[in-house]
Amino acid sequence: MPLLFYRRPDYLRRDKPVWTEDNYADCVERAEACRSHIPESLSFEEIVRNRTLPPCSLNDFMDYLMYVEYDAECLQFFLWYCDYVERWRCLPQAQKDSSPMWDPSKIVARPESARSRTGSFNENAQRMTRILGILDTSTKYDGNRGRSHSSAASPTNFSRPKTAFSDEFQIAKARRDGQPFSVQPFREEMTRIVRHYISTSGPRQLNLTHVDRIACIQAVEQTTHPSALLPAFTAAEALLKGQCHPNFVRWSISNSNRPRVIFARVLAAVLISLGFALNAALVLSSFSRYLRLAPSLLWPIGFVFLLASRHGICVILHWNYKRNLRPWEQFADEDFASSPSSPSDEKKPTNATDGQKRPPSSSSSSSSSAPVTRVASVDPLQSFGSANDAFFDSEPWVGEYQQKSTWRKIFEVSITTQNEHVRALQSRIVRQALLWGGLISLALTAGALSAPELGVF
Predict the structure, then answer these.
(1) Cα separation of 329 and 397, whole Å?
(2) Fewer CB in a 10 Å sphere around the end CB: N or C, the chain?
(3) Of 218, 253, 288, which residue is a domain's last?
(4) Does residue 456 sit within a domain?
(5) pTM, rounded to two decimals
(6) Domain residues for 434?
(7) What are the start and end residues of every segment in region (Disordered) (predicted)?
(8) Using the 8-state DSSP alphabet, how is residue 181 labeled?
């Protein structure tokens, strides 16, 4: 399975360059290439609908983007947009008519690109229509409905590009040219979204090209129709599906934290080195060569541990269907600590618009049957708020985890890996490690047995 040979993401950087059309085209290509490598049960659509269990739930995806990739704006905008499209569908026709679809002829000229990611406006409009098919329409719309059933076709891209002074001037000009209509539905909300995610001074600025940014601002000045933010939507889709989701699935396969992985690698290196040292001593001695089989038993154990640790997997934890708690999962919120949740809780929607708390993760500690739930001081699933960097700095677990000793981090609390599809991928990696570890050990053992006795002592 090609997924097993993915290169793990580089150490994450907060500062990211301004993206171009070619960057988005690369993301689209990667999304297509990764589609066959990720099980359907762990697809982007299933995760965004919140139909997957930890460690691949929607909450886990948001945590990953918040604390690992520092790209949470992507999913936050994505969830809002899907919820917005669904709410727009439920408006009376009279209100819809007051805010018509954005006319593509008014969009600023887009430079020609040999690898255009957006295609024609009509094609993008059809894509927006397909969002409705991805939305979970099996349940009747409710004003308090959350974003868990949001569409999966709308990813969001969000880095923090720097815009030149000339760009700021053109953005201001685009605002002056537009004529806002206060009678349009969701006008205030749309304006706040532009200030939060589209404007270059927004706290959760998306990593958009200059052309896309201007196009969105011009469109929102004229209409609140979802098509006004279509350029941002298509850019977001490319980043989420082409980069964030594949990296998240690959990261979720790991069942160990970094200190435990390093410990496993050191232990494996010690076992392998000890096997070589004992075999070398037996070759130099006058003892029977068949005694060399005893130290050779250290090799398969060492190689299996070493190969599995390349994917962040501890074999011992996997055999017990366990995984280490993430640092942000280790500090339970009192509101949820006494109310265990069931797998069905993962399918219940989360209303980020109303600022409700995230649903607890249904994970059980190895030493307790009560769920271990981490709730941020500010819910990352909320569409509006301060910059996500401020969330990380204000989290209480950051300082407490840093004060933990290395020994406690290595033997961290473990919980059951609930997602059977993740366990299946882990089993595949462990079987692969057993196969290669066994073959390497057999080759080394054969070489040790064939070596002549030197009889030095």
Answers:
(1) 9
(2) C
(3) 253
(4) no
(5) 0.73
(6) 258-442
(7) 336-371
(8) -
Cβ atoms 234, 118 nearer than 8 A: yes
The amino acid at residue 225 is H
For residue 34, the one-letter residue type is: C
The answer to whether 451 touches 283, Cβ cutoff 8 Å, is yes
Residue 451 placed within a domain: no
pLDDT at 253: 92
Looking at residue 345, what is its pLDDT?
42
Q: 449 exposed, middle or buried (CB, 10 Å; 0-12, 13-18, 19+)?
A: middle
Q: Which two tokens stand for residue 347?
A: 């399918």
Whether 307 and 433 have beta carbons less than 8 Å apart is answered as yes
Alpha-carbon torsion (57, 61, 66, 72), positive or negative? negative
pLDDT at 380: 60
**250: number of Cβ within 10 Å:** 21
Residue type, 46: E
Across 250-273, average pLDDT: 95
Question: Do 47 and 190 form a contact (C-beta atoms < 8 A)?
Answer: no
Closest CA to 255 of 217, 308, 302: 308
Paired tokens of 443: 């080759």
> How many residues are present in the chain?
457
Q: Is the pLDDT of residue 181 over 80?
A: no
- Residue after which a domain boundary falls, among 220, 253, 286: 253
Contacts of 2 (CB under 8 A, 6+ apart): 36, 37
- How many other C-beta atoms lie within 10 A of the C-beta of residue 48? 27
